[in-house]
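Deliverable D5.2: sample structural annotation.
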Amino acid sequence: MLVLLEIDRVGIAAAIKRYAGGEGMRLWDFVNGLKVAVACDHREHLSRTAGARGLDDRLIRGEVSTRARKPKTRRHPVLEYFERQRTSAGLQDVGFVVIVAMTGFFSGAVMALQMSRALATYGSISKTGTLVSLTLARELGPVLSAIMVAGRNASGIASELGSMKVTEQIDAMRALGTDPIQKLVTPRLIATLVMLPLLTVIADFVGMFGGFIIAEWFLGLSSKQYWTSVWQALSWNDVVQGGILKPGAFAIIISLTGCFYGLRATGGTQGVGRATTQAVVASITLVFIVDLLITKFILWFVGGTG
């Protein structure tokens, strides 16, 4: 130990000179101290190198070689986008689902109150569940969910892509041979296509439950009577129309509109703000227009109207 301290104090070269000059250091102590000093110097070099790379001592002791042997697999851009959204948003996504559910709940409750007043005139208040379910499944559920998603998703996509556009990150991707459409647009399109129908189903069910609360507490209808009328009113046409066709079309509109205005953003931060506003307004307007066209097509296809 004394030899090691001596070597650390005067250095390896000076210690060799002292041993060669016969200044009292024994050969065996000098060799052991020299080995420990070299090992400590090597570990100190590794620690400095690891610190520069952001590693810790735990990785130096062997996990570096273990991880280095495992090749890093590249995941699909869609999975990367889902992972990035999950880690960055956290509980914000859960809060957004709650907002959609609350929108559906109060829409169903208001619809039950309004329809029950009209149905009471004809003595058909028991048909409240029928009107609530049909209105939510065909129109209110898909449209309100699409509006909520447009306010959050279209604005987020436009602002994110707009920021990348004005800072020339997209130009850098093209220069490196990466297709911005495949890397940026496709994952957002597929993610919206997956999530919007699920949100629509949640809004529909919670809205029907809101109508049930009103029907049982204020209208005097039993739970069996309400849910039986809801079940008998819905058909596969309503499920396909309100749960798949309309949400799918709205998802394409919202995602592509957000990407379109985001990729066309110019003029710095002010241009990003304009692109975000235009994306939200345009996507909501297109949702109502396409809703009318799809409804007319479905009524013509099933022979409901001429």
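Annotation notes: The two ends are 101 Å apart (CA to CA). The longest helix spans residues 128-166.
The annotation will be released with the project's public dataset once the embargo ends.
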